């Protein structure tokens, strides 16, 4: 499904994708494409970025939280890391240059549909407890007691990726692949930035994190035991 206000370019892309074997439905804008996805779930939706205040970003994030079986590809300006980060954080599975050729767009959609879905992360994780944290992958939620923590799409996927390999080091490259199928490399700073935000929401003590540990020059891990070490008895 295509959602784009640029009618001439959208028509050209539609014809090229149909020639490539895709069944394509056109919607006049991104929000209508996302609304339509609730009625007739497409395999993928292609959306065009305009700025970080685009209302469709929040709608896409909500659909991701609801675990709709849809892949999202966002078309962004060339080399715009801010746009790429915003789209991925909102749930986009892939980003691509808005000026890419119809042939390249078709190839990217083929690649996107052939890769494991980012929401397939939930397949390998049962409901889990991390001390006082309750993690429910199916509901894409994390609770501390009766309070649900407000994690972004990318923060939740980072947490699930670490939970799937609990007790093992997960590299930044592996974490990046877990949160986005995009071929763009935005660098380790993106993972570190979102990991820092995740820690602020789940760690009781940022000075002594016990849920997510940093392994220097390697990556991150959730240890098998997250209970704090007992204090030394007074001598």
How would you describe the overall organization of this protein?
The chain is of the alpha/beta class. The chain is built from 8 helices and 12 strands. The strands form 3 sheets. Strands 2-1-3-4-5 form a 5-stranded parallel beta sheet, sandwiched between helices. Strands 6-7-8-9 form a 4-stranded antiparallel beta sheet, with no helix packed on it. A hairpin with a 4-residue loop joins β7 (133-136) and β8. α1 (7-19) packs across α5, α3 packs parallel to α4 and α6 (153-164) crosses α7. The longest helix has 15 residues, at 188-202. The model is unreliable at 229-235 (pLDDT under 50).
What is the CA-based Rg, rounded?
Answer: 20 Å
For the largest beta-sheet, the strand count, sense and barrel status come to: 5 strands, parallel
Weakly predicted, low-confidence segments: 229-235
Strand order of the largest sheet: 2-1-3-4-5
β content, as a range? Answer: 15-25%
**Helical segment tally?**
8
Averaged pLDDT: 79
Order of H and E elements: EHEHEHEHEHEEEEHEHHEE
- For the secondary structure, the number of strands is 12
Anisotropy-based shape = elongated
């Amino acid at each position: 499904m295509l959602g784009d206000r640029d009618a001439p370019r959208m028509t050209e892309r539609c014809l090229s994708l149909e020639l490539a074997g895709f069944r394509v439905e056109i919607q006049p804008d991104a929000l209508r494409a996302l609304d339509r996805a609730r009625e007739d779930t497409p395999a993928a939706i292609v959306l065009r970025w305009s700025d970080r205040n685009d209302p469709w970003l929040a709608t896409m994030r909500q659909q991701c939280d609801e675990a709709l079986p849809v892949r999202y590809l966002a078309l962004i300006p060339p080399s715009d890391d801010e746009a790429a980060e915003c789209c991925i954080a909102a749930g986009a599975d892939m980003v691509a240059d808005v000026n890419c050729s119809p042939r390249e767009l078709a190839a990217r959609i083929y690649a996107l549909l052939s890769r494991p879905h980012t929401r397939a992360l939930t397949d390998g994780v049962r409901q889990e407890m991390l001390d006082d944290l309750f993690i429910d992958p199916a509901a894409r939620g994390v609770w501390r007691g009766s309070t649900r923590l407000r994690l972004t799409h990318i923060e939740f996927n980072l947490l699930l990726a670490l939970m799937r390999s609990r007790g093992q080091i997960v590299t930044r490259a592996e974490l990046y692949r877990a949160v986005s199928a995009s071929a763009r490399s935005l660098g380790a700073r993106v993972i570190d930035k979102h990991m820092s935000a995740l820690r602020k929401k789940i760690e009781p003590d940022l000075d002594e994190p016990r849920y997510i540990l940093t392994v220097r020059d390697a990556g991150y891990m959730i240890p098998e035991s997250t209970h704090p070490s007992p204090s030394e008895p007074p001598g």
